[in-house]
Automatic annotation (TrEMBL):
Stated family: Belongs to the autoinducer-2 exporter (AI-2E) (TC 2.A.86) family.
Disordered: annotated span: 602-621
Lineage per the UniProt record: Bacteria, Pseudomonadati, Pseudomonadota, Alphaproteobacteria, Acetobacterales
Name this protein carries in UniProt: Putative PurR-regulated permease PerM
Keywords attached to this entry: Cell membrane, Membrane, Transmembrane, Transmembrane helix, Transport
Signal peptide annotation: none
GO CC terms in record: plasma membrane
Transmembrane segments: 20-37, 43-62, 69-91, 177-197, 231-253, 259-286, 298-320, 340-360
A Pfam family the protein falls into: AI-2E_transport
Organism: Roseococcus suduntuyensis
UniProt xrefs under PANTHER family: PERMEASE PERM-RELATED (PTHR21716:SF53), TRANSMEMBRANE PROTEIN (PTHR21716)
InterPro entries, sorted: AI-2E-like (IPR002549)
Length: 621
Protein backbone atom coordinates (compact mmCIF):
# COMPACT_ATOMS: atom_id res chain seq x y z
CA UNK A 1 0.00 0.00 0.00
CA UNK A 2 2.83 2.38 0.76
CA UNK A 3 4.14 2.07 -2.81
CA UNK A 4 0.86 3.48 -4.14
CA UNK A 5 0.74 6.28 -1.59
CA UNK A 6 4.08 7.46 -2.91
CA UNK A 7 2.70 7.27 -6.42
CA UNK A 8 0.04 9.90 -5.78
CA UNK A 9 2.57 12.62 -5.15
CA UNK A 10 4.31 14.24 -8.05
CA UNK A 11 7.98 13.51 -8.48
CA UNK A 12 9.76 15.33 -5.68
CA UNK A 13 12.91 17.23 -6.63
CA UNK A 14 16.04 16.30 -4.76
CA UNK A 15 16.94 18.52 -1.85
CA UNK A 16 18.83 21.57 -3.04
CA UNK A 17 19.06 25.24 -2.22
CA UNK A 18 15.85 26.97 -3.31
CA UNK A 19 15.94 29.56 -6.04
CA UNK A 20 17.75 29.20 -9.33
CA UNK A 21 19.53 32.55 -9.07
CA UNK A 22 20.76 31.89 -5.54
CA UNK A 23 21.96 28.43 -6.55
CA UNK A 24 23.92 29.81 -9.51
CA UNK A 25 25.50 32.54 -7.40
CA UNK A 26 26.39 30.01 -4.70
CA UNK A 27 28.00 27.70 -7.27
CA UNK A 28 30.05 30.55 -8.75
CA UNK A 29 31.15 31.65 -5.29
CA UNK A 30 32.19 28.11 -4.35
CA UNK A 31 34.20 27.69 -7.56
CA UNK A 32 35.90 31.05 -7.03
CA UNK A 33 36.86 30.09 -3.48
CA UNK A 34 38.14 26.69 -4.63
CA UNK A 35 40.26 28.31 -7.33
CA UNK A 36 41.73 31.29 -5.52
CA UNK A 37 42.22 29.44 -2.21
CA UNK A 38 43.79 26.38 -3.83
CA UNK A 39 47.13 27.02 -2.09
CA UNK A 40 45.36 26.23 1.20
CA UNK A 41 42.60 23.90 0.04
CA UNK A 42 44.79 21.46 -1.91
CA UNK A 43 46.85 20.50 1.18
CA UNK A 44 43.68 20.36 3.26
CA UNK A 45 41.93 18.07 0.76
CA UNK A 46 44.99 15.84 0.56
CA UNK A 47 45.09 15.70 4.35
CA UNK A 48 41.42 14.73 4.60
CA UNK A 49 41.84 11.95 2.03
CA UNK A 50 45.01 10.71 3.70
CA UNK A 51 43.25 10.75 7.08
CA UNK A 52 40.54 8.49 5.64
CA UNK A 53 43.29 6.06 4.58
CA UNK A 54 45.03 6.15 7.97
CA UNK A 55 41.90 6.09 10.14
CA UNK A 56 41.53 2.26 10.04
CA UNK A 57 45.18 1.90 11.06
CA UNK A 58 44.67 4.30 13.98
CA UNK A 59 41.55 2.40 15.05
CA UNK A 60 43.47 -0.90 14.95
CA UNK A 61 46.24 0.55 17.12
CA UNK A 62 43.67 1.95 19.55
CA UNK A 63 42.04 -1.48 19.92
CA UNK A 64 45.28 -2.98 21.20
CA UNK A 65 45.58 -0.28 23.86
CA UNK A 66 47.85 2.28 22.18
CA UNK A 67 47.22 5.85 23.37
CA UNK A 68 45.58 8.12 20.81
CA UNK A 69 48.57 10.42 20.33
CA UNK A 70 51.00 7.53 19.89
CA UNK A 71 48.61 5.74 17.53
CA UNK A 72 48.22 8.83 15.35
CA UNK A 73 51.95 9.58 15.32
CA UNK A 74 52.82 5.96 14.53
CA UNK A 75 50.37 5.83 11.62
CA UNK A 76 51.50 9.19 10.22
CA UNK A 77 55.22 8.39 10.60
CA UNK A 78 54.71 5.05 8.87
CA UNK A 79 52.94 6.81 5.99
CA UNK A 80 55.69 9.45 5.77
CA UNK A 81 58.36 6.74 5.75
CA UNK A 82 56.62 4.92 2.91
CA UNK A 83 56.21 8.13 0.90
CA UNK A 84 59.84 9.17 1.43
CA UNK A 85 61.05 5.72 0.47
CA UNK A 86 58.98 5.82 -2.71
CA UNK A 87 60.30 9.29 -3.47
CA UNK A 88 63.93 8.22 -3.02
CA UNK A 89 63.43 5.13 -5.17
CA UNK A 90 61.78 7.18 -7.91
CA UNK A 91 64.56 9.80 -7.77
CA UNK A 92 67.25 7.13 -8.09
CA UNK A 93 65.47 5.41 -10.96
CA UNK A 94 64.94 8.74 -12.73
CA UNK A 95 68.66 9.55 -12.40
CA UNK A 96 69.56 6.21 -13.98
CA UNK A 97 67.03 6.84 -16.73
CA UNK A 98 68.51 10.29 -17.43
CA UNK A 99 71.99 8.78 -17.85
CA UNK A 100 70.70 6.23 -20.37
CA UNK A 101 68.56 8.60 -22.42
CA UNK A 102 71.23 9.14 -25.17
CA UNK A 103 71.45 5.38 -25.72
CA UNK A 104 67.66 5.04 -25.86
CA UNK A 105 67.47 7.97 -28.27
CA UNK A 106 70.02 6.32 -30.56
CA UNK A 107 68.14 3.01 -30.50
CA UNK A 108 64.81 4.68 -31.27
CA UNK A 109 66.37 6.58 -34.17
CA UNK A 110 67.87 3.38 -35.52
CA UNK A 111 64.54 1.57 -35.29
CA UNK A 112 62.76 4.39 -37.07
CA UNK A 113 65.47 4.32 -39.75
CA UNK A 114 64.94 0.59 -40.22
CA UNK A 115 61.20 1.16 -40.60
CA UNK A 116 61.97 3.87 -43.13
CA UNK A 117 64.32 1.62 -45.06
CA UNK A 118 61.84 -1.24 -45.16
CA UNK A 119 58.78 0.74 -46.10
CA UNK A 120 60.21 3.86 -47.73
CA UNK A 121 57.11 5.88 -46.85
CA UNK A 122 58.88 8.21 -44.43
CA UNK A 123 61.69 8.75 -46.91
CA UNK A 124 59.24 9.62 -49.68
CA UNK A 125 57.44 12.08 -47.45
CA UNK A 126 60.79 13.62 -46.47
CA UNK A 127 61.83 13.95 -50.13
CA UNK A 128 58.50 15.58 -50.95
CA UNK A 129 58.93 18.12 -48.15
CA UNK A 130 62.50 18.86 -49.27
CA UNK A 131 61.29 19.39 -52.84
CA UNK A 132 58.64 21.82 -51.67
CA UNK A 133 61.22 23.71 -49.62
CA UNK A 134 63.60 23.91 -52.60
CA UNK A 135 60.80 25.26 -54.80
CA UNK A 136 59.99 27.89 -52.22
CA UNK A 137 63.64 28.97 -52.10
CA UNK A 138 63.78 29.35 -55.91
CA UNK A 139 60.63 31.46 -55.86
CA UNK A 140 61.93 33.72 -53.11
CA UNK A 141 63.10 37.28 -54.06
CA UNK A 142 66.77 38.13 -54.40
CA UNK A 143 68.50 38.98 -51.13
CA UNK A 144 69.60 42.58 -50.54
CA UNK A 145 73.16 43.55 -51.66
CA UNK A 146 75.99 42.89 -49.21
CA UNK A 147 77.58 45.92 -47.56
CA UNK A 148 80.69 47.45 -49.14
CA UNK A 149 84.08 46.07 -48.14
CA UNK A 150 85.28 49.39 -46.81
CA UNK A 151 82.47 49.61 -44.28
CA UNK A 152 83.56 49.11 -40.68
CA UNK A 153 82.44 45.73 -39.33
CA UNK A 154 81.52 45.46 -35.63
CA UNK A 155 83.82 43.55 -33.35
CA UNK A 156 82.28 40.47 -31.69
CA UNK A 157 81.79 40.93 -27.96
CA UNK A 158 81.43 38.04 -25.50
CA UNK A 159 80.10 38.54 -21.98
CA UNK A 160 81.35 36.06 -19.40
CA UNK A 161 79.32 36.09 -16.18
CA UNK A 162 81.22 35.71 -12.94
CA UNK A 163 81.31 32.20 -11.46
CA UNK A 164 78.26 31.53 -9.26
CA UNK A 165 78.71 31.79 -5.56
CA UNK A 166 77.98 28.96 -3.17
CA UNK A 167 74.79 30.59 -1.89
CA UNK A 168 73.45 31.03 -5.42
CA UNK A 169 74.14 27.38 -6.23
CA UNK A 170 72.27 26.29 -3.11
CA UNK A 171 69.43 28.64 -3.95
CA UNK A 172 69.17 27.22 -7.47
CA UNK A 173 69.01 23.68 -6.12
CA UNK A 174 66.79 24.24 -3.09
CA UNK A 175 64.31 26.84 -4.38
CA UNK A 176 62.35 24.45 -6.68
CA UNK A 177 62.00 22.04 -3.75
CA UNK A 178 60.66 24.58 -1.26
CA UNK A 179 57.03 24.60 -2.45
CA UNK A 180 56.62 20.78 -2.62
CA UNK A 181 58.33 20.36 0.75
CA UNK A 182 56.20 23.09 2.33
CA UNK A 183 53.03 21.54 0.89
CA UNK A 184 54.10 18.12 2.15
CA UNK A 185 54.72 19.52 5.63
CA UNK A 186 51.35 21.28 5.73
CA UNK A 187 49.60 18.08 4.64
CA UNK A 188 51.30 16.08 7.40
CA UNK A 189 50.35 18.67 10.04
CA UNK A 190 46.75 18.70 8.83
CA UNK A 191 46.61 14.90 8.87
CA UNK A 192 47.87 14.75 12.45
CA UNK A 193 45.30 17.26 13.69
CA UNK A 194 42.41 15.69 11.72
CA UNK A 195 43.20 12.28 13.23
CA UNK A 196 43.70 13.67 16.73
CA UNK A 197 40.49 15.71 16.77
CA UNK A 198 38.33 13.51 14.56
CA UNK A 199 35.43 13.29 17.02
CA UNK A 200 35.49 17.04 17.63
CA UNK A 201 35.37 17.73 13.90
CA UNK A 202 32.53 15.23 13.54
CA UNK A 203 30.52 16.93 16.29
CA UNK A 204 30.99 20.34 14.70
CA UNK A 205 29.89 18.94 11.34
CA UNK A 206 26.82 17.42 12.97
CA UNK A 207 26.01 20.80 14.51
CA UNK A 208 26.24 22.43 11.08
CA UNK A 209 24.30 19.78 9.19
CA UNK A 210 21.62 18.26 11.38
CA UNK A 211 21.61 18.87 15.11
CA UNK A 212 17.79 18.56 15.17
CA UNK A 213 18.07 14.79 14.50
CA UNK A 214 21.20 13.96 16.45
CA UNK A 215 20.97 10.17 16.50
CA UNK A 216 20.23 9.79 12.80
CA UNK A 217 22.85 12.32 11.74
CA UNK A 218 25.54 10.73 13.94
CA UNK A 219 24.75 7.26 12.62
CA UNK A 220 24.85 8.50 9.03
CA UNK A 221 28.15 10.33 9.45
CA UNK A 222 29.80 7.45 11.30
CA UNK A 223 28.65 5.05 8.61
CA UNK A 224 29.85 7.38 5.84
CA UNK A 225 33.26 7.90 7.47
CA UNK A 226 33.69 4.17 8.08
CA UNK A 227 32.76 3.26 4.51
CA UNK A 228 34.99 5.95 3.02
CA UNK A 229 37.92 4.85 5.18
CA UNK A 230 37.55 1.24 4.12
CA UNK A 231 37.10 2.24 0.49
CA UNK A 232 40.19 4.47 0.31
CA UNK A 233 42.37 2.06 2.28
CA UNK A 234 41.31 -0.81 0.03
CA UNK A 235 41.95 1.36 -3.03
CA UNK A 236 45.46 2.22 -1.83
CA UNK A 237 46.19 -1.42 -1.01
CA UNK A 238 44.91 -2.69 -4.36
CA UNK A 239 46.77 -0.06 -6.38
CA UNK A 240 49.96 -0.80 -4.43
CA UNK A 241 49.67 -4.51 -5.16
CA UNK A 242 48.94 -3.70 -8.79
CA UNK A 243 52.08 -1.54 -8.99
CA UNK A 244 54.22 -4.29 -7.44
CA UNK A 245 52.87 -6.89 -9.88
CA UNK A 246 53.53 -4.56 -12.83
CA UNK A 247 57.07 -3.85 -11.60
CA UNK A 248 57.81 -7.55 -11.18
CA UNK A 249 56.40 -8.39 -14.61
CA UNK A 250 58.36 -5.58 -16.29
CA UNK A 251 61.52 -6.84 -14.57
CA UNK A 252 61.06 -10.31 -16.08
CA UNK A 253 60.20 -8.81 -19.48
CA UNK A 254 63.43 -6.81 -19.37
CA UNK A 255 62.17 -3.22 -19.36
CA UNK A 256 64.68 -0.84 -17.68
CA UNK A 257 63.75 0.82 -14.36
CA UNK A 258 60.82 -1.54 -13.63
CA UNK A 259 60.36 -0.24 -10.07
CA UNK A 260 59.82 3.30 -11.36
CA UNK A 261 57.18 2.20 -13.85
CA UNK A 262 55.49 0.01 -11.24
CA UNK A 263 55.17 3.00 -8.91
CA UNK A 264 53.85 5.14 -11.78
CA UNK A 265 51.34 2.42 -12.72
CA UNK A 266 50.07 2.23 -9.13
CA UNK A 267 49.74 6.02 -8.87
CA UNK A 268 48.03 6.31 -12.26
CA UNK A 269 45.32 3.93 -11.08
CA UNK A 270 43.97 6.91 -9.13
CA UNK A 271 43.71 8.97 -12.34
CA UNK A 272 40.53 8.24 -14.33
CA UNK A 273 40.68 7.51 -18.06
CA UNK A 274 44.12 8.94 -18.95
CA UNK A 275 45.94 7.21 -16.09
CA UNK A 276 46.26 3.91 -17.94
CA UNK A 277 47.57 5.63 -21.07
CA UNK A 278 50.22 7.49 -19.08
CA UNK A 279 51.21 4.34 -17.18
CA UNK A 280 51.73 2.26 -20.34
CA UNK A 281 53.32 4.98 -22.51
CA UNK A 282 56.76 5.17 -20.85
CA UNK A 283 57.45 1.42 -20.53
CA UNK A 284 56.27 0.97 -24.11
CA UNK A 285 58.68 3.61 -25.43
CA UNK A 286 61.56 2.11 -23.45
CA UNK A 287 60.76 -1.37 -24.74
CA UNK A 288 60.91 0.00 -28.29
CA UNK A 289 64.33 1.51 -27.56
CA UNK A 290 65.82 -1.49 -25.76
CA UNK A 291 65.02 -4.42 -28.03
CA UNK A 292 65.65 -4.49 -31.79
CA UNK A 293 62.55 -6.65 -32.35
CA UNK A 294 58.91 -6.28 -31.39
CA UNK A 295 58.51 -8.99 -28.76
CA UNK A 296 59.06 -6.75 -25.74
CA UNK A 297 56.61 -3.98 -26.81
CA UNK A 298 53.93 -6.58 -27.49
CA UNK A 299 54.50 -8.16 -24.06
CA UNK A 300 54.23 -4.75 -22.39
CA UNK A 301 50.92 -4.04 -24.12
CA UNK A 302 49.57 -7.48 -23.21
CA UNK A 303 50.70 -7.02 -19.60
CA UNK A 304 48.84 -3.73 -19.13
CA UNK A 305 45.78 -4.94 -21.03
CA UNK A 306 45.48 -8.04 -18.85
CA UNK A 307 46.27 -6.08 -15.67
CA UNK A 308 43.70 -3.35 -16.31
CA UNK A 309 41.10 -5.89 -17.38
CA UNK A 310 41.63 -7.99 -14.26
CA UNK A 311 41.51 -4.96 -11.96
CA UNK A 312 38.47 -3.37 -13.58
CA UNK A 313 36.39 -6.48 -14.23
CA UNK A 314 37.40 -8.93 -11.48
CA UNK A 315 39.12 -7.51 -8.42
CA UNK A 316 37.48 -4.09 -8.06
CA UNK A 317 33.90 -5.43 -8.42
CA UNK A 318 34.83 -8.22 -5.99
CA UNK A 319 36.22 -5.82 -3.37
CA UNK A 320 34.13 -2.68 -3.86
CA UNK A 321 30.94 -4.16 -5.28
CA UNK A 322 29.45 -2.85 -8.48
CA UNK A 323 31.41 0.40 -8.71
CA UNK A 324 32.67 3.42 -6.79
CA UNK A 325 29.12 4.77 -6.63
CA UNK A 326 29.74 7.33 -9.40
CA UNK A 327 28.08 7.42 -12.79
CA UNK A 328 30.46 7.33 -15.80
CA UNK A 329 29.47 10.86 -16.83
CA UNK A 330 30.12 12.07 -13.29
CA UNK A 331 33.64 10.63 -13.41
CA UNK A 332 34.37 12.50 -16.66
CA UNK A 333 32.90 15.75 -15.37
CA UNK A 334 34.71 15.41 -12.03
CA UNK A 335 38.06 14.74 -13.70
CA UNK A 336 37.63 17.78 -15.96
CA UNK A 337 36.38 20.05 -13.17
CA UNK A 338 39.05 19.26 -10.57
CA UNK A 339 41.83 19.34 -13.17
CA UNK A 340 40.66 22.78 -14.29
CA UNK A 341 40.60 23.99 -10.69
CA UNK A 342 43.71 22.42 -9.21
CA UNK A 343 45.77 21.05 -12.10
CA UNK A 344 47.35 17.58 -12.05
CA UNK A 345 46.78 17.23 -8.30
CA UNK A 346 43.09 17.79 -8.91
CA UNK A 347 43.07 15.05 -11.55
CA UNK A 348 44.53 12.57 -9.05
CA UNK A 349 42.02 13.58 -6.36
CA UNK A 350 39.00 13.86 -8.69
CA UNK A 351 37.42 10.47 -7.99
CA UNK A 352 38.06 10.39 -4.19
CA UNK A 353 36.73 13.92 -3.73
CA UNK A 354 33.64 13.19 -5.81
CA UNK A 355 33.01 9.98 -3.87
CA UNK A 356 33.03 12.08 -0.68
CA UNK A 357 30.45 14.45 -2.20
CA UNK A 358 28.20 11.55 -3.23
CA UNK A 359 28.37 10.02 0.26
CA UNK A 360 27.52 13.42 1.73
CA UNK A 361 24.48 13.69 -0.54
CA UNK A 362 23.40 10.17 0.34
CA UNK A 363 23.32 10.82 4.10
CA UNK A 364 22.45 14.53 4.36
CA UNK A 365 19.06 15.50 2.99
CA UNK A 366 19.91 19.07 2.03
CA UNK A 367 22.76 17.80 -0.17
CA UNK A 368 20.72 15.04 -1.79
CA UNK A 369 21.07 16.74 -5.17
CA UNK A 370 24.77 15.79 -5.15
CA UNK A 371 23.94 12.09 -5.13
CA UNK A 372 21.28 12.55 -7.80
CA UNK A 373 23.68 14.46 -10.06
CA UNK A 374 26.84 12.41 -9.47
CA UNK A 375 25.79 9.00 -8.12
CA UNK A 376 25.14 5.83 -10.08
CA UNK A 377 21.74 5.14 -8.54
CA UNK A 378 18.80 5.54 -10.94
CA UNK A 379 17.59 9.16 -10.69
CA UNK A 380 13.96 8.01 -10.85
CA UNK A 381 12.18 5.16 -9.11
CA UNK A 382 11.01 2.34 -11.45
CA UNK A 383 7.34 3.50 -11.40
CA UNK A 384 8.44 7.06 -12.18
CA UNK A 385 10.61 5.78 -15.04
CA UNK A 386 7.66 3.75 -16.33
CA UNK A 387 5.43 6.84 -16.28
CA UNK A 388 8.09 9.01 -17.92
CA UNK A 389 8.67 6.53 -20.75
CA UNK A 390 4.97 5.92 -21.27
CA UNK A 391 4.46 9.68 -21.46
CA UNK A 392 7.35 10.17 -23.89
CA UNK A 393 7.22 9.17 -27.53
CA UNK A 394 9.50 6.15 -27.10
CA UNK A 395 7.68 2.80 -26.82
CA UNK A 396 10.96 0.93 -27.32
CA UNK A 397 12.33 2.41 -24.08
CA UNK A 398 9.20 1.24 -22.26
CA UNK A 399 9.63 -2.28 -23.61
CA UNK A 400 13.33 -2.23 -22.73
CA UNK A 401 12.57 -1.37 -19.09
CA UNK A 402 10.10 -4.26 -18.94
CA UNK A 403 12.61 -6.64 -20.49
CA UNK A 404 15.26 -5.73 -17.90
CA UNK A 405 12.79 -6.09 -15.00
CA UNK A 406 11.49 -9.45 -16.24
CA UNK A 407 14.97 -10.94 -16.13
CA UNK A 408 14.73 -11.01 -12.34
CA UNK A 409 11.00 -11.16 -11.58
CA UNK A 410 7.69 -12.55 -12.78
CA UNK A 411 5.29 -10.67 -15.02
CA UNK A 412 2.77 -10.18 -12.21
CA UNK A 413 5.42 -8.72 -9.92
CA UNK A 414 6.57 -6.34 -12.66
CA UNK A 415 3.01 -5.11 -13.06
CA UNK A 416 2.48 -4.77 -9.29
CA UNK A 417 5.75 -2.99 -8.46
CA UNK A 418 6.40 -0.96 -11.62
CA UNK A 419 3.52 -0.64 -14.08
CA UNK A 420 0.55 -0.19 -11.74
CA UNK A 421 2.30 2.39 -9.48
CA UNK A 422 3.30 4.15 -12.72
CA UNK A 423 -0.34 4.17 -13.80
CA UNK A 424 -1.25 5.61 -10.39
CA UNK A 425 1.21 8.45 -11.01
CA UNK A 426 -0.32 9.09 -14.42
CA UNK A 427 -3.85 8.90 -12.97
CA UNK A 428 -2.96 11.48 -10.32
CA UNK A 429 -1.61 13.89 -12.94
CA UNK A 430 -4.65 13.32 -15.16
CA UNK A 431 -6.95 14.11 -12.24
CA UNK A 432 -5.08 17.39 -11.67
CA UNK A 433 -5.55 18.31 -15.33
CA UNK A 434 -1.84 18.09 -16.20
CA UNK A 435 -2.35 15.61 -19.04
CA UNK A 436 -4.19 16.64 -22.19
CA UNK A 437 -6.36 14.36 -24.29
CA UNK A 438 -3.62 13.87 -26.89
CA UNK A 439 -1.16 12.83 -24.19
CA UNK A 440 -3.65 10.38 -22.69
CA UNK A 441 -4.36 8.91 -26.10
CA UNK A 442 -0.64 8.50 -26.82
CA UNK A 443 -0.02 6.86 -23.44
CA UNK A 444 -2.85 4.38 -23.98
CA UNK A 445 -1.43 3.48 -27.39
CA UNK A 446 2.05 2.91 -25.97
CA UNK A 447 0.64 0.80 -23.12
CA UNK A 448 -1.27 -1.31 -25.64
CA UNK A 449 1.93 -1.79 -27.63
CA UNK A 450 3.77 -2.87 -24.46
CA UNK A 451 1.05 -5.40 -23.61
CA UNK A 452 1.22 -6.78 -27.13
CA UNK A 453 4.99 -7.23 -26.87
CA UNK A 454 4.72 -8.94 -23.49
CA UNK A 455 1.97 -11.22 -24.78
CA UNK A 456 4.41 -12.58 -27.35
CA UNK A 457 7.66 -12.51 -25.36
CA UNK A 458 6.58 -13.81 -21.94
CA UNK A 459 5.57 -17.46 -22.10
CA UNK A 460 4.01 -17.85 -18.65
CA UNK A 461 3.71 -16.22 -15.25
CA UNK A 462 4.82 -19.04 -12.96
CA UNK A 463 2.84 -19.51 -9.77
CA UNK A 464 5.22 -19.43 -6.78
CA UNK A 465 5.71 -22.83 -5.18
CA UNK A 466 4.86 -23.31 -1.53
CA UNK A 467 7.94 -22.35 0.50
CA UNK A 468 10.05 -22.72 -2.65
CA UNK A 469 9.85 -26.53 -2.45
CA UNK A 470 10.65 -27.93 -5.93
CA UNK A 471 8.91 -31.21 -5.02
CA UNK A 472 5.49 -29.53 -4.75
CA UNK A 473 3.78 -29.70 -8.17
CA UNK A 474 2.44 -26.52 -9.71
CA UNK A 475 -1.33 -26.16 -9.43
CA UNK A 476 -3.27 -27.16 -12.54
CA UNK A 477 -5.81 -24.55 -13.71
CA UNK A 478 -9.36 -25.71 -12.94
CA UNK A 479 -10.99 -27.07 -16.06
CA UNK A 480 -14.39 -25.58 -15.35
CA UNK A 481 -13.24 -22.13 -14.36
CA UNK A 482 -14.80 -20.77 -17.54
CA UNK A 483 -14.16 -17.35 -19.04
CA UNK A 484 -13.02 -14.63 -16.67
CA UNK A 485 -13.94 -11.07 -17.63
CA UNK A 486 -11.71 -8.19 -16.49
CA UNK A 487 -13.70 -4.96 -16.75
CA UNK A 488 -12.03 -1.58 -17.00
CA UNK A 489 -13.64 1.33 -15.18
CA UNK A 490 -14.13 4.90 -16.38
CA UNK A 491 -10.63 6.13 -15.60
CA UNK A 492 -8.20 6.78 -18.47
CA UNK A 493 -5.95 3.89 -17.38
CA UNK A 494 -8.47 1.46 -15.92
CA UNK A 495 -8.65 -0.49 -19.17
CA UNK A 496 -4.86 -0.86 -19.22
CA UNK A 497 -5.00 -2.30 -15.69
CA UNK A 498 -7.75 -4.72 -16.75
CA UNK A 499 -5.70 -5.82 -19.77
CA UNK A 500 -2.67 -6.45 -17.52
CA UNK A 501 -4.74 -8.59 -15.16
CA UNK A 502 -6.25 -10.59 -18.03
CA UNK A 503 -2.80 -11.17 -19.49
CA UNK A 504 -1.43 -12.54 -16.20
CA UNK A 505 -4.46 -14.81 -15.83
CA UNK A 506 -3.90 -16.18 -19.33
CA UNK A 507 -0.21 -16.74 -18.58
CA UNK A 508 -1.32 -18.85 -15.61
CA UNK A 509 -3.52 -21.01 -17.81
CA UNK A 510 -6.91 -19.40 -17.18
CA UNK A 511 -9.37 -18.28 -19.85
CA UNK A 512 -9.51 -14.52 -19.38
CA UNK A 513 -10.26 -11.42 -21.42
CA UNK A 514 -10.62 -7.68 -20.88
CA UNK A 515 -13.32 -5.23 -21.91
CA UNK A 516 -14.28 -1.66 -20.99
CA UNK A 517 -17.37 -1.04 -18.90
CA UNK A 518 -19.16 0.44 -21.94
CA UNK A 519 -19.14 -3.00 -23.57
CA UNK A 520 -21.57 -4.22 -20.92
CA UNK A 521 -24.42 -2.11 -22.25
CA UNK A 522 -27.37 -4.07 -23.56
CA UNK A 523 -26.83 -2.81 -27.11
CA UNK A 524 -23.07 -3.55 -27.10
CA UNK A 525 -22.75 -7.20 -26.08
CA UNK A 526 -25.36 -9.94 -26.57
CA UNK A 527 -26.71 -11.56 -23.41
CA UNK A 528 -25.74 -15.04 -24.59
CA UNK A 529 -22.08 -14.01 -24.70
CA UNK A 530 -22.25 -12.64 -21.18
CA UNK A 531 -23.92 -15.82 -19.96
CA UNK A 532 -20.63 -17.70 -20.43
CA UNK A 533 -18.83 -15.53 -17.87
CA UNK A 534 -18.02 -17.36 -14.62
CA UNK A 535 -15.90 -14.67 -12.91
CA UNK A 536 -15.82 -10.88 -13.18
CA UNK A 537 -13.17 -8.47 -11.93
CA UNK A 538 -13.75 -4.73 -12.03
CA UNK A 539 -10.36 -2.96 -12.32
CA UNK A 540 -10.02 0.64 -11.25
CA UNK A 541 -7.15 2.98 -10.46
CA UNK A 542 -7.77 5.06 -7.34
CA UNK A 543 -8.63 8.64 -8.25
CA UNK A 544 -10.72 7.82 -11.33
CA UNK A 545 -13.56 9.94 -9.95
CA UNK A 546 -16.01 10.06 -7.11
CA UNK A 547 -16.95 7.08 -5.01
CA UNK A 548 -20.49 7.39 -6.37
CA UNK A 549 -19.21 6.84 -9.92
CA UNK A 550 -17.35 3.68 -8.89
CA UNK A 551 -20.46 2.34 -7.18
CA UNK A 552 -22.49 3.12 -10.29
CA UNK A 553 -20.15 1.09 -12.50
CA UNK A 554 -20.24 -1.81 -10.05
CA UNK A 555 -24.05 -1.81 -10.10
CA UNK A 556 -24.06 -1.84 -13.90
CA UNK A 557 -21.68 -4.80 -14.03
CA UNK A 558 -23.77 -6.71 -11.49
CA UNK A 559 -26.96 -6.04 -13.49
CA UNK A 560 -25.41 -7.28 -16.74
CA UNK A 561 -23.88 -10.36 -15.07
CA UNK A 562 -26.62 -11.78 -12.86
CA UNK A 563 -25.53 -14.74 -10.83
CA UNK A 564 -21.83 -13.88 -11.21
CA UNK A 565 -19.94 -12.58 -8.22
CA UNK A 566 -18.28 -9.30 -9.21
CA UNK A 567 -14.90 -8.79 -7.56
CA UNK A 568 -12.81 -5.64 -7.60
CA UNK A 569 -9.12 -4.89 -8.15
CA UNK A 570 -8.52 -1.44 -6.67
CA UNK A 571 -5.09 -0.03 -7.53
CA UNK A 572 -3.69 2.40 -5.01
CA UNK A 573 -6.64 2.22 -2.65
CA UNK A 574 -6.30 3.78 0.79
CA UNK A 575 -9.42 2.11 2.22
CA UNK A 576 -12.26 4.52 1.44
CA UNK A 577 -13.14 3.28 -2.04
CA UNK A 578 -12.79 -0.38 -1.05
CA UNK A 579 -15.19 0.08 1.85
CA UNK A 580 -17.73 1.84 -0.35
CA UNK A 581 -17.60 -0.92 -2.96
CA UNK A 582 -17.88 -3.60 -0.29
CA UNK A 583 -21.06 -1.93 0.95
CA UNK A 584 -22.35 -1.97 -2.62
CA UNK A 585 -22.05 -5.75 -2.71
CA UNK A 586 -18.63 -6.36 -4.23
CA UNK A 587 -17.13 -9.78 -3.69
CA UNK A 588 -13.40 -10.09 -3.09
CA UNK A 589 -11.43 -6.85 -3.12
CA UNK A 590 -7.72 -7.02 -3.92
CA UNK A 591 -5.01 -4.43 -4.47
CA UNK A 592 -2.40 -6.31 -6.54
CA UNK A 593 -2.48 -8.39 -9.69
CA UNK A 594 -0.58 -11.21 -8.01
CA UNK A 595 -3.16 -11.50 -5.23
CA UNK A 596 -5.98 -11.17 -7.76
CA UNK A 597 -4.62 -14.01 -9.89
CA UNK A 598 -4.28 -16.24 -6.84
CA UNK A 599 -7.84 -15.37 -5.77
CA UNK A 600 -9.21 -16.07 -9.26
CA UNK A 601 -7.41 -19.40 -9.30
CA UNK A 602 -8.90 -20.35 -5.93
CA UNK A 603 -12.38 -19.28 -7.01
CA UNK A 604 -12.06 -21.48 -10.10
CA UNK A 605 -11.17 -24.47 -7.95
CA UNK A 606 -14.16 -23.78 -5.71
CA UNK A 607 -16.44 -23.56 -8.73
CA UNK A 608 -15.09 -26.88 -10.01
CA UNK A 609 -15.79 -28.54 -6.66
CA UNK A 610 -19.32 -27.12 -6.63
CA UNK A 611 -19.89 -28.48 -10.14
CA UNK A 612 -18.73 -31.94 -9.12
CA UNK A 613 -20.94 -31.93 -6.00
CA UNK A 614 -24.16 -31.05 -7.85
CA UNK A 615 -26.44 -34.19 -7.81
CA UNK A 616 -27.34 -35.64 -11.18
CA UNK A 617 -30.92 -35.32 -12.49
CA UNK A 618 -31.34 -39.12 -12.50
CA UNK A 619 -31.24 -39.49 -8.70
CA UNK A 620 -34.01 -41.24 -6.65
CA UNK A 621 -36.97 -39.27 -5.38
Amino acid sequence: MSDFRRAYHSIRPAGAPEGGTNLALTALLVMAVLYFARELLVPLALAVLLSFVLAPIVRALRRIGTPRVLAVLAAVLAAVAVLLMLGLVMARQLAELANDIPFYQFELTRKLSSINASGGMIERVQEMLQGLAAGAERAAPEPPPMPAADQVRPFPVQVHPPPPRTFEVLRTVVEPLLYPLATFGIVIVFVIFVLLYREDLRDRLIRLIGAHDLQRTMAAMDDAAYRLSRFFLAQVAMNSIYGMVIALALFFIGVPQPILWGIVAGLMRFVPFVGTIIAVAFPLLLSLAVEPGWTMPVLVLVLFAVGEGAMGQVFEPLIFGRSTGLSPIAVIVAATFWTWLWGPVGLVMAVPLTVCLVVLGRHVERFEFLEVALGDRPPLEPPETFYQRALGDDPDALAEQAEIALRESRLSRYYDTVALPGLALAQADAQRGRLGELQLKGMRARLASLLEDLEEDVEQDAIPLAKGDPTVPRPVPPASAGPILCVGGRGPFDMAAAAMLAQVLRKRGLDAGAAPAEMLRADATPAEDLARIRQAWLCTVEGMGSTAAARSILRRVKRRLPGVEVNVLVIGDEGRLAEALRQEGAGSITTTIDATAAQAFQMGEDQEEDTQNVPSSGGTA
